[in-house]
């Protein structure tokens, strides 16, 4: 009987040790760490399309006599146009050129219904800054307040 009890105790101890060994060596299911998804840096398709349209208009506006440089920003169906004029342009010529720019923008891009044109160096610089930011992939929403303010300054009601 003593031998049977000893055998049982030894068997029980071995069974416990074996169970502990098996459970300790089992693979632990660790939840995978979530992978960080970084958004693409490219501009949305709509913004890219607006930039292409604006570039096309700006290039064609420099063919107008007296326009040295043109910068264009398109927002929905409106265009902000900043123009740098030749030094030979004086007085009423500026208004005539602005009128010609307005007509040409609408002729180049039929989706544009409103055109705000300025030859003021400060406004031209701000329009250039906005256009550069958009072409670098910054969201249009980042500039919406400034675009609205420029429209109000150029075209007061």
From TrEMBL:
<dbReference type="Pfam" id="PF09580">
    <property type="entry name" value="Spore_YhcN_YlaJ"/>
</dbReference>
<protein>
    <submittedName>
        <fullName>Lipoprotein YhcN</fullName>
    </submittedName>
</protein>
<keyword id="KW-0732">Signal</keyword>
<dbReference type="GO" id="GO:0030435">
    <property type="term" value="P:sporulation resulting in formation of a cellular spore"/>
</dbReference>
<dbReference type="InterPro" id="IPR014247">
    <property type="entry name" value="Spore_lipoprot_YhcN/YlaJ"/>
</dbReference>
<feature type="signal peptide">
    <location>
        <begin position="1"/>
        <end position="24"/>
    </location>
</feature>
<dbReference type="InterPro" id="IPR019076">
    <property type="entry name" value="Spore_lipoprot_YhcN/YlaJ-like"/>
</dbReference>
<keyword id="KW-0449">Lipoprotein</keyword>
